[in-house]
Amino acid sequence: MPVYNVEDYLRQCIDSVLNQTMRDIELICVDDGSTEGSAAILAEYAAKDARVKVMAREHSNAGAARNAGMSVASGEWLFFSDADDFLGAEMLSRMTTADGADAADMVIAGHRTLENGVISTNRISARLLKHREAGGGPCPPWLFLDAGVMPWNKLFRRSFVRDRKLSFQEVPRHNDMLFVCCALASAKEVAVSNTCGYVYRRRRSGGITESASRHGGFLFADVLQALRSELEKRGLLATALQAYGNLALAHCYYHLLGEFDPVSFVALYSELHGHLLADFGLTGADKSAFVNKKHCEYMQATLSDETPLSLWMILLRERYSSWRDLCSRNERISGLQKKVFDAEGRVGALQSESEALKLRVSEKDRRIGDLDRSVKEKAGLLDEANRQIAELRGRLQVEKSSRTELAQRLEAVLGSRSYRLGRVVTWPFRALFGRRRADDVRQKPLRPEADLLDNC
User: Fold this and answer.
1) Which of 200, 199, 80, 94 lies closest to 151 in space, CA to CA?
2) Quick one: which H or E segment has residue 149?
3) Domain, as residue range, for 172
4) What is the DSSP letter of 208?
5) What is the mean pLDDT of residues 430-456?
6) How far apart are CA 411 and CA 418, in angstroms?
7) Per-residue pLDDT tens for 389-409?
8) How large is the average pLDDT for residues 330-342?
9) Is the Cβ–Cβ distance between 74 and 162 less than 8 Å?
10) How far apart are CA 71 and CA 48, in angstroms?
11) What are the tens digits of pLDDT across the range 344-384?
12) How confident is the model at residue 455 (pLDDT cuts 50, 70, 90)?
């Protein structure tokens, strides 16, 4: 990990490496002459985690720092992280266990880009996946573009790097292009992982990655020429020629169209027209081998006109087309917004109706609740009345039983000898006080039990 003036991001980066689920790692941090607090942060981490090793050197560039770190690395795999980026916790373990990684010279993964607080995902291209599934083979024309020339989405087997004597160019920018492209062109087996664990922080000034204008607009051309020479020296140019041509063409127009200074734009255009496109071997290449047809059109316009007029016309046409598409898109958006507005009005009306229905339902629920309470109260009164009726029926039954018992006892008394004897004994008194009444009693048949009880 090359480190240069990144104290605002360094802790996040180191933590993301040390917190990998793959624990058996070493983190080699190369302080490339930082002038702020980065060195103190590195010392702090080295003191508390034995896996962190720190090297210090005078300020040079990221390529030199990576070469220095690579020279002391001891692991099976090499991974290069920028100090202002960070990794997902499972990134390294998922890359080392990707399909085919056991026999691969390198592993390529997707990545994510963090720009202005927004993260976008950049997955492995379908072409690269199909190429890997088909067993690889000769270097396809799109390989350098689809795989990317950055090292931080790739793992390199250390023995492979050592045997191929691969190293980074020690230049201010694009120092990773030669290393990565030579590795891609010479690797016998390349594995692919679908993980997108690496988060690349874009548009940050002051660190290892700086704007092109600080080092001149033509540095990329020197790097491309050095790459062509290196591929040729290694005997790889024949198989990687089309991949190199697509990469060179893309870089030419990436830098040309990204140059906003008119003087620099015209100067670079003149160099491309004069000799650079020819130096890269693009002018005589088979046009069908170019992956990006738009870049090919730019090149034809550049070669046909010494001034940028032809290219400007193409760019104006494209921008007009884009503007027209934008206007059409805006019209569609306006139409959709009107539909949304109308729909929101209908939704508002439906919501009002819904609220009214909710109030009516609530009122009916309240009335139903009142009726339920009334029914429960009446049911309680009815239960109480039934209970009282049952109690009265029980008491009536008891009274009936009692009266029957008394009637039976009275019958027994009236039929007893003692009663008859008593009547004989009391006859004079009854004759004296109520002869007629006594005769009526004796002559009349026995009355019902209720009358007997009433007369007792």
Assistant:
1) 80
2) none
3) 2-210
4) S
5) 55
6) 13
7) 999 899 889 888 988 988 888
8) 80
9) no
10) 24
11) 888 888 888 888 888 888 888 888 988 888 888 888 888 88
12) very low
First to last CA, the chain: 125
Q: At 191, give phi and psi (nearest 5°).
A: -95, 160
Determine the average pLDDT of the residues in 260-264: 88
- Closest by Cα among 330, 324, 224 to 281: 224
Q: How far apart are CA 236 and CA 187, in angstroms?
A: 11
User: Reduced to 3 states, what is the DSSP secondary structure of residue 151?
Assistant: coil
**What residues contact 129, with CB distance under 8 A and at least 6 apart?**
192
Residue that is written with structure tokens 């997955």 in the block: 123
In a domain, 175, yes or no: yes
Q: Is residue 190 part of a domain?
A: yes
pLDDT at 341 over 50: yes
Average pLDDT over the chain, rounded to an integer = 87
* Structural domain contains residue 221: no
CATH number of the domain encompassing residue 49: 3.90.550.10
Copy the structure tokens of residue 420: 């008859």
Residue 284 in tokens: 């005589």
Structure-token pair, residue 321: 């087309």
Q: Which residues, 6 or more positions from 255, have their beta carbon under 8 angstroms from its beta carbon?
A: 212, 217, 220, 268
Structural domains in the chain (count): 1
The tally of CA atoms less than 13 A away on the side-chain side of residue 12 is 14
Domain presence at residue 456? no
Paired tokens of 354 = 């819904």
What are 107's two structure tokens?
A: 């592993």
Instruction: Give the pLDDT of residue 434.
Output: 66
Q: What's this model's pTM, rounded to 2 decimal places?
A: 0.69
**Where do runs of H (alpha helix) occur along 86-206?**
91-96, 126-133, 143-147, 158-164, 177-186
Task: Give the mean pLDDT of 163-167.
Answer: 96
Give ∠ CA 56-60-62 in degrees, rounded to 5: 85
